[in-house]
Design a protein that fits this description.
The complex is a heterodimer. By secondary structure, chain A is an all-alpha fold. Chain A is built from 3 helices and no strands. Chain A has helices spanning 2-21, 26-46, 72-103. Chain A starts with a helix and ends in a 10-residue tail after the last helix. The mean pLDDT of chain A is 87. Chain B has one domain. Chain B is mostly helical. Chain B has helices at 10-23, 30-55, 82-102, 113-129, 133-151, 157-188, 193-199, 205-226, 234-241, 244-250, 253-269, 281-301, 305-325, 329-360, 366-374, 378-385, 394-410, 416-429, 439-468, 481-499, 501-516, 519-526, 534-539, and strands at residues 62-66, 77-81. Classes of the chains: A mainly alpha, B mainly alpha. The A-B interface holds A 21, 26, 29, 33, 36-37, 40, 43-44, 47-49, 73-74, 77, 80-81, 84, 87-89, 91-92, 95-96, 98-99, 102-103, 108-110 and B 134, 138, 141, 144-145, 148, 152, 155-157, 160-161, 163-165, 167-168, 171-172, 174-175, 178-179, 181-183, 185-186, 191.
């Protein structure tokens, strides 16, 4: 059930993101890119296999049973991807505002078709 | 650990520290910032030269640097082998030329040019050095983030418009990168390139489709950056809109995509990959050929010189990708030689175009407008105009440089462009197993020759229009020595490559041999030993 929910969520996020990315207004493009980024982050997370109720960080001391833990690497990757995605989205937002100011249009080509 | 052992990471640390340091100073301190930047870039050149000399020792494969002293498959590694050292040196050379050129005026056309420049170098060097897929993603983002800033350097409507396309395309490609990397991780459970090469043959049959999908998606991310058709429509606009020194340094950015494909394709999907061996090679070859054809048509159709050069970038990328798709050590040798030569040529040509364009349309001096908008002090500007000697017979000298670029670009003898293409073609025609020449090799042969011919035609046309039939109101452009010197430097490097073709060819041949038989590379990375820490030693 978790798998189905997660796959649907990723699918809906990326699907709407791609549709918005192909729209002509800059605001739609950046919202689309953000949605794709969310979908991709969930996807990376799911690549460590879905397990609920298990921690990714090992306890100190004692014998470690790897089956009692979930894979920590994808979680670290997601964290990095979120930070980078946040930064580049902010950067793109600034460029969009500059373009809006310079061209007087929010069309991605800088002029109305 | 000896200090010299840390040289492997110096190409990342040095630009990072320099770029951050330069952020601390006010924009008005141009001279100081330029001096620091020049010093750092020359330092980088020195380091890259040392690394090339170290990598080019008989028998040695790769120097492996364990970040944080974690053993290979668990931590992130930096690997300096012949290919990465060569790319570092190429980057440093191009960066030196672009930086010197920008000192004439461009570096004052917008804020934080010097910091962004150093961060771009950091990203480039990191991407060439890293031996870890996710780390490669991080360095790609670093170099892209810096390139977004540089792309918009000098502002203006055209730059912002094409810059926005550039950013949107690259952000989307980064998402594909992440999907590809995580799919590969999900199947194999590792991100270290050498470890991946070991684990891929053992991937069970039911997971193979996922793995191949992952590598294909990752490949598309790289190919977008390399500018393969049909993912290249952003490139000509963006490159021709960028400021000249920025465009010159950007000519190595498409090569980052090519580098990633060149590094990963033989390593992960080479002969040792079992069922996935040579996955995607034919697709790469065909896409490369189409890109070459598309770029050639673009070169012929271009009216403005900057666009012509931008389409030449596509021709160069297409040639390299098609050569990688042939998956043959001999072809790769030619491709590496061609890559160095064409990157230097295109870098020089981007710089030259700006100088020549000044004689074409003096009214449209975009730079002056943007500088006004940026609020630069006009009086200070006038004083700076006097610096340097304007060359006599400027047009004649620019014309000679233009002819050299034409020869290099179209691959006519006697310069290095010819040697590169000749090496490519002769290897492609003898690549077949049984002596028979495959149809694809003939297609490659034909497209490469025709693209060279058309490049010559286009260059001739532009050259005649510019130098022999200048517009009636044409003026002799003012060219400063600092602007001309980088062009001369890059072209001189091509001449040096021609004269010293023997040693260069031997180097690239050793590079391509180790790329196509990566066992030693894998062994070197996975067996890299940790440095004993003082605590561990005391505990013993």
């Amino acid at each position: 059930m978790t798998e189905l929910t997660l796959s649907l969520a990723i699918g809906v996020l990326v699907g709407s993101g791609v549709w918005l990315l192909l729209r002509p207004r800059t605001y739609q493009v950046i919202v689309g890119l953000s949605l794709i980024a969310y979908g991709v982050n969930l996807f990376i997370f799911s690549m460590g296999r879905l397990r609920s109720g298990v921690p990714p960080v090992l306890d100190t001391g004692g014998v470690v049973d790897p089956t009692a833990y979930t894979d920590p690497v994808p979680q670290a990757l997601v964290l990095t991807a979120i930070v980078i995605g946040f930064a580049t989205t902010a950067l793109f937002l600034v460029v969009m505002l500059v373009a809006r100011g310079l061209t007087g249009s929010d069309h991605v080509d800088g002029r109305e078709p | 650990m000896q200090l010299a052992n840390h040289l492997d990471i110096a190409p990342i640390i040095l630009p990072l520290v320099t770029g951050a340091f330069l952020l601390l100073f006010d924009e008005r301190r141009h001279t100081f910032k330029s001096l620091v930047n020049i010093a750092a870039t020359l330092g980088l050149l020195l380091i890259a030269g040392t690394l090339v000399a170290q990598a080019d020792v008989e028998g040695s494969v790769a120097s492996v640097y364990l970040l944080g002293n974690w053993a290979a498959p668990y931590g992130i590694v930096l690997v300096v082998d012949r290919l990465s050292a060569m790319m570092l040196l190429l980057t440093a050379l191009l960066a030196t030329a672009a930086l010197v050129f920008s000192l004439a005026r461009w570096h004052k056309a917008g804020p934080h040019f010097h910091s962004l420049f150093q961060f771009l170098l950091m990203g480039l060097n990191g991407a060439f050095l890293t031996g870890d897929l996710f780390n490669l993603f991080v360095f790609f983002e670093v170099l892209l983030a810096a390139s977004y800033g540089l792309m918009l350097h000098g502002l203006g409507v055209t730059r912002v418009r094409f810059g926005m396309h550039y950013i949107a395309v690259n952000l989307a490609a980064s998402m594909l990168f992440l999907i590809g990397v995580s799919l590969i991780y999900g199947v194999t459970g590792t991100l270290n390139m050498a470890d991946l090469a070991v684990r891929i043959p053992a991937v069970p049959a039911q997971d193979r489709a996922l793995l191949e999908a992952g590598t294909a998606i990752l490949g598309i991310a790289f190919l977008t950056k390399a500018g393969i058709w049909p993912l290249c429509f952003w490139l000509p606009g963006a490159y021709s809109a960028a400021a000249a020194p920025v465009a010159a340094i950007f000519s190595i950015m498409t090569k980052v995509g090519v580098y990633a494909v060149l590094r990963l394709s033989p390593l992960l999907l080479g002969a040792r990959a079992g069922d996935s061996a040579s996955f995607g090679d034919v697709g790469l070859l065909v896409a490369g050929l189409v890109t070459m054809a598309f770029g050639t048509i673009g070169v012929l159709a271009s009216q403005a010189m900057a666009r012509l050069v931008s389409y030449s970038v596509l021709v160069s990328s297409g040639t390299l990708l098609a050569a990688v798709g042939m998956a043959d050590a001999g072809v790769t040798t030619g491709a590496l030689f061609y890559m160095v030569s064409s990157t230097l040529t295109i870098g020089a040509l981007f710089l030259l175009v700006e100088l020549v364009d000044r004689s074409q349309d003096p009214a449209a001096n975009v730079l002056a407008v943007t500088m006004e908008a940026y609020g630069d002090d006009p009086e200070e500007e006038e004083i700076d105009e006097e610096v340097g000697v304007t060359l006599p017979a400027t047009l004649a000298i620019l014309g000679i440089c233009f002819v050299l670029c034409g020869l290099l670009l179209s691959g006519l003898p006697p310069l290095s462009g010819f040697l590169g293409k000749f090496a490519l073609l002769s290897a492609a025609l003898s690549a077949g197993d049984d002596g028979a020449i495959s149809g694809m090799a003939w297609a490659f042969f034909a497209v490469l020759i025709i693209s060279g011919l058309f490049a010559m035609v286009a260059m001739l046309r532009v050259g005649i229009r510019t130098f022999w039939a200048p517009p009636i109101e044409g003026v002799v452009p003012r060219v400063l020595v600092v602007e001309f010197a980088p062009v001369a430097l890059l072209l001189a490097l091509c001449v040096v490559m021609t004269v010293k073709a023997g040693p260069v060819m031997a180097y690239v041949d050793a590079t391509s041999q180790s790329l196509h038989s990566p066992d030693a590379y894998i062994e070197g990375v996975l067996s890299a030993r940790q440095v004993p820490s003082p605590k561990m030693e005391a505990g013993r």
